[in-house]
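Issue: ligand-bound run for xanthosine-5'-monophosphate - logging full I/O for the record.

Environment: standard queue, default settings, no custom constraints.

Inputs:
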Amino acid sequence: MSVATIEEVLVLDFGGQYSQLIARRIRECGVFAELLPATAPIETIVRRSPKALVLSGGPASVHDPGAPAFPEQLIELGVPVLGICYGMQAMAKALGGKVEAAESGEFGRTDLTVIGDGGMLLGGLPTEQHCWMSHRDSVTEAPPGFSPIAASPGSPVAALESSEQGLYGIQFHPEVVHTPYGTEVLNRFLREVAGCEQQWNPASVVAEQVEAIRDQVGDGKVICGLSGGVDSSVAAKLVHEAIGENLTCVFVDHGLMRSNEAEQVVEAFGQFGIPLVHVDAEQRFLERLAGVTEPETKRKIIGEEFIRVFEEEATKLTDVDYLVQGTLYSDVIESGGSDHAATIKSHHNVGGLPEDLDFELVEPLRMLFKDEVRAVGTELGLPDRMVWRQPFPGPGLGIRIVGGEVNRERLDILRAADHILQEEIRAGNLYRSLWQSFCVLPAIRSVGVQGDGRTYAYPIVIRAVTSEDAMTADWARLPYDLLEKVSNRIINEVSGVNRVALDISSKPPSTIEWE
Ligand code: XMP
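Outputs:
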């Protein structure tokens, strides 16, 4: 993204679990923020001309040998600095304050008492408030020139500032929702201390990206693989806004989508007039999956076949030089940061494409978090159903038929059951609050009784989870009434099913998908 002209704040990452969240919150305050490793050379930081710097928390103790140090050259930049948690401790230690190891740290909700007038960050806020802490060491003495502005039971100096030097520190986490005045503190730092004025929002990305895409591809021809998911749909729509008919989307329909999903993609892109090649490859996929029961083999076959079909279509189109990828900022960070070269999004993704397809990448979402991509999607007029779609694995229903072959009969049963679950979850207004909700078909049969006869049919497992990022997940406490309705409907309406079970395992130790 050509963000050079945008006011930006850099978050120097000391490895804390909330570093990404800090950047997200700053953006929610309407100021563009990016993450850099805390070890980034000072020249890199200078080149970016940030309006302010934020130092994140981190797992180390400032007393550990080799613990990351406060980059003292930052002070010479004359840019305001806010240290959070470890960031504050590193700053305090480097500048002559005292940081001491405590017997027991402070973890979770903690009382915070504002000291004196509370300075720029806490002035005028309630003297007694709560905050969220996660630390063992604490600052026991502020460095010369700094005033302590808050204390907590375990932190004599829980916040400090030297407004003359433009240096600020807070031991608590303003970025988590459990710190009620966290956003206020961040806002004050950004607006009042750092003087950030611009209002950044995901919608402003649209105009800017349209320009950037035009600059990058000119009159070139561009191809985009669609999965039906929000990332590839938003990326495609954005590129289409920029270059119109020079974009061709390819939707490889592997026949492993949920009910009506393929139709929805075709319809939405048709309405927008975006050139779309819909490849109905169900037969090919099913032929290759016949007799395969081992989950990794299924995954591999689906991935390989996907690439083959995509390649065939790509070579039918002439003169294509560019490939659109829905890479997100979290992928960029995870693969080594924004200063690194483009990395093809292959993790967990059936759309990971072979390197010998010699395209230059167009990645219009590289700077965006998932929630921002959704906002951009809405801004571009994509239907809510697409923008708010729950994550769906690239290999689709292929990995939700477990312990046996994936075939048309089982897919139809699973699709029908899943459709009922989705309908009821949506009707109960729960769809957006769940990270994922879906059905699984274990390829076993058991006995049941329906009418006067015995049945020998498949079970369906309901899996619904809440999660922030899929790394951990909890099983969703769906209302009993809803479960009852779903169970009755599935057994009554889907022939081939005589039993419905609910998965009540969290991740870890289970995973979200069954496979
Ligand atoms: P697990 O099952 O590992 O899933 O807890 C974590 C998240 O990743 C998704 N997932 C996949 N996505 N291709 C994908 O594109 C895959 O092969 C795949 N396997 C799991 C899963 O839906 C969940 O959101």
